[in-house]
C-alpha cells in the first residue's frame, strides 16, 4: 500500500516521502480501516512518539498522521463493537504506524461511528482538534458557564474549536492570534480579539481559563492574568509558567469515542464548524504537508477520492 513515512528527524517535514509499505494486519481488539481521509498536525515532528516506540527503540520510517476517517475492512481476534463496512473516525495510537496510508490498524476502542451524512474529509479533520478542545475545556479546565476564556490561536485548528465550544457552553471568549486572524476568530464566535503582535495581554484584566497552543513567553504572560482559582491549560508540552493562585495542566489528547460523538453531532447540526485549510490527495501529499508558506487551518489528505 502507499503510505507517507518520516525518514529523518532533523529534516522534519522536508524528510517525508511517499513509500510502498505492507498492508497492516489487525492485532487483538484491532480493526484495520480502509483510510478515506487523514488529518495532520504540523508539529508531529516534535512529538517523541514519532521517532521512538514505548520501549525507547527507534521507529525507523514510521507512517505519520494520527487522525482519520474511513471504513472498517477487517477485524482482529476478539474485536467487538465495530463491524465490517462501518464508517468510523478517531485517533490512532501515537506510537503505532499512522493514518497517512491506504490502510491503518487501530484499537477498536479508539474509534467512533462516523454518521453517513458527514463527509470523510470533515470526519478526518475533527478528532485531534475537536478532542483537544473538548478535553482541555471540560476535563482539564473544568469550564463553567459565565467564566472567561483566553483562547490562544483562535483562528487555528484547535483554537477555533476551543472558541466555538467555550461560547456554546456560556463562556466569554477572548481569542488571540495575529492581526490577520481577527475576523476569523470573531467569525468562530470570539467575543473579543487580541492581536498578540501589537496589543498587550495585561490590558485584558483577568480571565478564568487560558487555553494555550503557543507556549513560551506568551504562556508566561498569560499565566499572570489568571484569576485566583483559575486554570492554565497547555497543549504544547510541560507548563513553564504557573498562575499564582490557580492550576496549571498540560496534557496530550486521547481518543474518547463518546466525546467524538458529541463533536460530530455538533458538526451535523451546525453548532460547530471545522477549520479545514488544505485538502490534497495522497499522491500530492508531500508538498501539502511541507508547504513553502504558512497555511491556516487543518491539512487533510484525501486518501481515496
Ligand atoms: N497536546 C496535545 O494533545 C495537542 C493536540 C493538538 C495540537 N497540539 C499542539 O497545539 C499547537 C497548535 O495546533 P493547531 O493544530 O491548532 O495549529 P494551528 O492550526 O497552526 O493553530 C495555531 C494558531 O496559533 C497562531 N500562533 C502561533 N504562534 C503565534 C504567535 N506567536 N503569535 C500569534 N499567533 C500565533 C497560529 O498563527 P500562525 O499560523 O500565523 O503562526 C495559528 O493561527 C501545536 O503545537 C500542536 O502540536 C497539541
From TrEMBL:
All residue ranges annotated as the Enoyl reductase (ER) domain in the record: 11-301
Keywords, in A-Z order: Oxidoreductase
EC number: 1.-.-.-
InterPro entries in alphabetical order: ADH-like_C (IPR013149), ADH-like_N (IPR013154), ER (IPR020843), GroES-like_sf (IPR011032), NAD(P)-bd_dom_sf (IPR036291), YIM1/Zinc_Alcohol_DH_Fams (IPR050700)
GO molecular function: oxidoreductase activity
Family matches, as PANTHER family: ALCOHOL DEHYDROGENASE RELATED, RETICULON-4-INTERACTING PROTEIN 1, MITOCHONDRIAL
Stated name of the protein: NADP-dependent oxidoreductase
Organism: Micromonospora halotolerans
